[in-house]
Amino acid sequence: MAINKKSLTDQVYSMLKEKILNRDVDLGEQLNTREIAEEHGISLMPVRDALRRLANEDLVENRPRVGFFVKNFSEAEVNDILEVRKMHEIYCLDNYFEEIDRGVISDLKDKFENGHKKYFTSYDSKLHKEIVLASHNNYLIDSYLKMINHYTMLFSYLNYKRSETSRQEHIDLIDCILKGDKAKAEKILYRHLDRVKIAEDASIKNRA
Amino acid sequence: MAINKKSLTDQVYSMLKEKILNRDVDLGEQLNTREIAEEHGISLMPVRDALRRLANEDLVENRPRVGFFVKNFSEAEVNDILEVRKMHEIYCLDNYFEEIDRGVISDLKDKFENGHKKYFTSYDSKLHKEIVLASHNNYLIDSYLKMINHYTMLFSYLNYKRSETSRQEHIDLIDCILKGDKAKAEKILYRHLDRVKIAEDASIKNRA
Question: Hey, is the C-beta of B138 within 8 angstroms of any chain A C-beta?
Fold first, then answer.
């Protein structure tokens, strides 16, 4: 860790957050305070403060008298969070189909087809977000983004796991929107979001 | 204002909040710092602090160099907020119709028919909330309640305005659920939420 002018707590916080969001640690993995402190030659205090801050953001779970763990999600929690996401996206696809920005999604189609694999998860989020933006309802968009941002970590793990298989689903979805086939677009989005669920139930179960 | 052990700021804050939620002040009405301070024989500081706290909760709008005003909503904002509410309720009615607690809503029907008028707005919120609770999805319920709680004031004004006319709509909605007529229940809920919108556009326009 390079020395910089941020406080030790800030530095440890940023480093751990990056590790979590980059999936360098597993969901549910213990973050050992003493090990982190020793590894970086610092005292326990800033590490604990950083972990508490991450716990406040729901990225880390603080189990009193046990330790800090990367937040994990039960199957039921994953399904529940995905349902809230589905409710928003299906509502917007259904009610604002004509408002979806064709220019933006054509561009995304090109990126899915020709872009570098490592950016797929970002195209993925962009496409789903674009469907919700079509509502032009700031309160609805805010409700969606708050949820997405609050569970960034979960969606990062979910998208990553499926980025290969879901590429074609995204291209199909874009094609239906561009062709104006709303019924088929809804069917694909439904199936796509359910597949995320099923695939991830499995991957999360395997970790536990 | 009776003297108590809470700080002056806390007391002014509680008093103003109660006034707003009880609709003793109009949406958009100016809250004059100097007048409030003089009325209660206190300095400007605790009044300003209380108003700033209410502004943080979105109950009051702080217009720099002009003053503090009870938060008001444009027609477009009212429609947008109601759409988010509708999305949640219609989704749950559609997907969790069978899960709605028949005991609770039978009880609410009785209260709508025989209870005191002044409690109607509370029965109203309870009925709508009950539909969302049927999802048993804590993330979805949380998303709904956060929005409802954040705009408590708006819904309080909206419900109050319509409590007379909407009583029958609520009874009809309950009857449909009890009879198991999902299609008609959805129709009534849709129409009911749209009527809230139309009625309130008018009432809010009149204030402006």
Answer: yes
Residue recorded with tokens 């109601």: B82
Distances (CA, A) of A97 to A101, A134, A193: 9, 8, 18
Q: What is the pLDDT of residue A2?
A: 53
Three-state DSSP state, A30: strand
Put simply, the answer to whether A87 touches B140 (Cβ < 8 Å) is yes
Quickly state the pLDDT bin for A34 (edges 50, 70, 90): very high
A137 touches chain B (CB under 8 A): yes
Task: Look at A84 and B138 and tell me if their CB atoms are within 8 Å.
Answer: no
Query: Given 1.10.3720.10, 3.90.1150.10, 1.25.40.10, 1.10.10.10, which CATH number is that of A8-70?
Result: 1.10.10.10
- Tell me the mean pLDDT in the region A138-143: 95
| Predicted confidence (pLDDT) per residue in A179-194, tens digit | 999 999 999 998 888 7
| Contact at CB, A140 and B88, closer than 8 angstroms | no
pLDDT for the residue A197: 62
Residues 146-165 of B with CB under 8 A from A: 147
Segment A147-153 shows an average pLDDT of 85
CB contact under 8 A, B87 and A88: yes
User: What are the E-state strand segments in B27-165?
Assistant: 30-31, 60-63, 67-70
Half-sphere exposure of residue A28: CA atoms within 13 angstroms, side-chain side: 9
pLDDT at residue number A131: 97
| Residue ranges covered by each domain of chain A | 8-70, 75-207
Q: For residue B64, how many C-alpha atoms fall within 13 Å in the half-sphere facing its CB? A: 0
CA distance B137 to chain A (A): 6
**Closest Cβ opposite residue A140 in set B83, B91, B135:** B83
Which residues in chain B land under pLDDT 70? Answer: 1-5, 160-164, 195-208
Residue A165: which residues within 8 A CB-CB, separation 6 or more?
A: A195, A199
- Give me the CATH topology for the region A75-207: Four Helix Bundle (Hemerythrin (Met), subunit A) (1.20.120)
Global pTM value:
0.81
- Chain A's closest residue to B81, CA to CA, is A139
